[in-house]
């Protein structure tokens, strides 16, 4: 059953917990999505709400919020391929694979977000990402209003980017490689613990602020400029990792000012333009320099 909420507080839909008011929020299940997509224009799709930040202003577009799947729902083996609903969380997929002894997804346990968004942004860590084992995706084309399957060979992937545009990912198919379940489980736990030691968790954050520039690390550059622990209003740079912001009672405006300041200072000192990894949704009075993928 699809529910429609009007004038909803957007801070309740994201992991960072800021934002203004949304005009219309459609609460729906994965199975409802193909139906709704053919009927609604001018929308954004929201899953876990990580890696995005809404402006403090009124948001006029329709928001399609896909409610989380339960436990390990939406994951199956079909003809030796791993079939995954786009609404499955990265963590759920990783642990499901660990139990089945399917290797190649150990890195995904500590990544917030759902599979559709992870493929779109080619999320990854520890030298791996979602493009590595991807066979194909089943999508809805927002321009032609049609459904189709796209082979991964026809998608251009790079660091935290893909060439997927104007399409909604509904399902993904991955190649499978089997190993001993205890080995996969141990490696998954090892990488998750490693991530917890170096990055903040259990607090309000949207994930990494910037992509790492070629041959360098955004966190290292920001650390060298003394940003760790920097605070403006109710938003602060994490004491644990300088490439993360924590919301301690602030607004999107506070966060954007810090991000812009960070970008300006790194460019001034090192002549390196840091590209934001977070997506900015809504109307903003000011923004950092964007590459075009963040809107």
Automatic annotation (TrEMBL):
GO terms for biological process: cell division; cell wall organization; peptidoglycan biosynthetic process; regulation of cell shape. Residues 18-194 form the FAD-binding PCMH-type domain. It is found in: Cytoplasm. The active site is at residues 160, 208, 277. The keyword Hydrolase does not apply. Its cofactor is FAD. Its EC number is 1.3.1.98. It catalyses: UDP-N-acetyl-alpha-D-muramate + NADP(+) = UDP-N-acetyl-3-O-(1-carboxyvinyl)-alpha-D-glucosamine + NADPH + H(+). Belongs to the MurB family. This is UDP-N-acetylenolpyruvoylglucosamine reductase. It comes from Thermodesulfobium acidiphilum.
């Amino acid at each position: 059953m699809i529910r429609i909420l009007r004038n909803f507080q957007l801070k309740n839909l994201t992991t960072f917990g800021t934002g203004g008011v949304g005009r219309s929020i459609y609460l729906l299940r994965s199975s409802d999505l193909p139906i709704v997509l053919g009927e609604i224009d001018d929308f954004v799709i929201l899953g876990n709400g990580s890696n995005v930040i809404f402006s403090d202003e009124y948001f006029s577009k329709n928001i399609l919020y896909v409610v989380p799947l339960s436990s390990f729902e939406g994951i199956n083996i079909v003809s030796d391929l791993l079939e995954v609903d786009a609404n499955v969380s990265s963590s759920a997929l990783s642990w499901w694979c660990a139990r089945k002894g399917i290797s190649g997804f150990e890195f995904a346990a500590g990544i917030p977000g759902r599979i559709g968004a992870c493929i779109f942004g080619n999320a990854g860590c520890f030298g791996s990402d979602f493009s590595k084992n991807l066979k194909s995706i089943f999508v809805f084309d927002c321009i032609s209003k049609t459904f189709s399957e796209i082979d991964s060979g026809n998608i251009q992937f790079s660091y935290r980017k893909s060439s997927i545009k104007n399409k909604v990912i509904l399902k993904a198919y991955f190649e499978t490689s089997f190993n001993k379940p205890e080995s996969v489980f141990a490696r998954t736990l090892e990488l998750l613990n490693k991530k917890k030691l170096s990055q903040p968790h259990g607090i309000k954050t949207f994930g990494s602020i910037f992509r790492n520039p070629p041959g360098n690390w955004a966190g290292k550059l920001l650390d060298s400029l003394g940003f760790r622990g920097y605070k403006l209003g109710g938003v602060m740079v994490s004491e644990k990792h300088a490439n993360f912001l924590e919301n301690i009672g602030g607004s999107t405006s506070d966060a954007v000012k810090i991000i812009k300041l960070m970008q300006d200072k790194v460019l001034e000192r090192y002549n390196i333009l840091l590209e934001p990894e977070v997506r900015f949704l809504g109307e903003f009075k000011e923004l950092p320099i964007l590459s075009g993928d963040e809107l």
